[in-house]
Each structure stands twice: as structure tokens, then as C-alpha cells.
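User: Just a sanity check before I run the rest of the batch. Below are the C-alpha cells for the first item. I only need the designed sequence back.
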């Protein structure tokens, strides 16, 4: 177990196993020194973590959505680990994109994204500083409340 995974455990979280792709794609893929994740849902033990018990986020369940963004982020990190072998290879998080299945009048997608962003900073410090987009959408796969994509710059052994 690497230093980053030990830190995740120290803050009271668990890095899940990487989820298998549910279609004709990869959960994460390497291009040069970048690892791109496919969209990761807030799945915990195979079940969606859903704000307010439904797929759409509104102001009443915003804090639950913040928690769900942290769950989805851990799934994205697990996908990166499936490519790199260790989270210690991450030199920096380049970009986080969060899609939020939003009720019509919900405009706090950036607040939901703060859950994932703050966890990246907590885990990686300055290396967790990243560019970010937070986008409201009408719906997501499996009626999930949100979906996260990450791009990470990683170091790989010279062959």
C-alpha cells in the first residue's frame, strides 16, 4: 500500500476496488503521462449513493450531493490506480469535471463539486490543485445524481 492510500485511510475513507467498465470502454486509459478516467458514479458497495433518495439534485439535498461527489471521486482514483498500479504515481490532478443531474432551478453545481475538490486537496495537497468544470445536466446513467471525470498527470517508469 502506498503513501497516498495510507493517507486516504488516515482521513477515514477507503479506496474501493476499481469498477469494471459497464460497456465497450475502459474505466481509465493512459495517453503519454496523462490518465483519463471515464465517468465515475457515486457507487458504494455496488449501490448508488443518492441525495434525497433520487437522481435529481436540488437545494434541499445539496449537502448529500457533496458527499456523493466524494464517493465518486474515490471511484475515479481507483480507476487511475487500475492503470498506474499506485496512486503515488500521481504528480498532479489536472482536471476534474463534475456532471450533476439537476432539478430545473438548481444552480449550485459548483458547491457539489467542492466536495470532490476539497478531498483532492486533502489527499494530495498542492498536487491536488486542478482545473474544474461543474455542469448541470438533465439526466445521467442509472439515474445517478452525479458523475465525475478526472485527468491526472502521472509518472511512469522509464522502459
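Assistant: Here's the designed sequence for the first item:
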Amino acid at each position: 500500500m502506498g503513501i497516498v492510500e495510507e493517507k486516504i485511510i488516515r482521513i477515514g475513507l477507503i479506496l474501493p476496488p476499481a469498477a469494471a467498465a459497464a460497456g465497450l470502454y475502459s474505466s481509465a486509459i493512459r495517453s503519454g503521462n496523462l490518465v483519463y478516467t471515464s465517468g465515475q458514479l457515486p457507487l458504494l458497495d455496488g449501490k448508488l449513493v443518492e441525495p434525497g433518495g433520487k437522481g435529481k439534485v436540488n437545494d434541499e439535498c445539496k449537502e448529500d450531493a457533496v458527499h456523493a461527489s466524494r464517493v465518486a471521486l474515490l471511484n475515479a482514483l481507483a480507476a487511475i490506480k487500475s492503470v498506474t498500479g499506485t496512486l503515488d504515481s500521481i504528480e498532479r490532478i489536472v482536471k476534474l469535471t463534475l456532471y450533476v443531474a439537476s432539478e430545473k432551478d438548481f444552480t449550485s453545481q459548483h458547491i457539489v463539486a467542492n466536495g470532490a475538490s476539497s478531498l483532492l486537496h486533502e489527499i494530495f495537497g498542492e498536487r491536488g490543485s486542478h482545473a474544474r468544470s461543474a455542469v448541470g445536466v438533465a439526466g445521467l446513467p442509472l439515474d445517478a445524481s452525479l458523475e465525475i471525470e478526472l485527468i491526472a498527470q502521472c509518472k511512469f517508469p522509464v522502459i
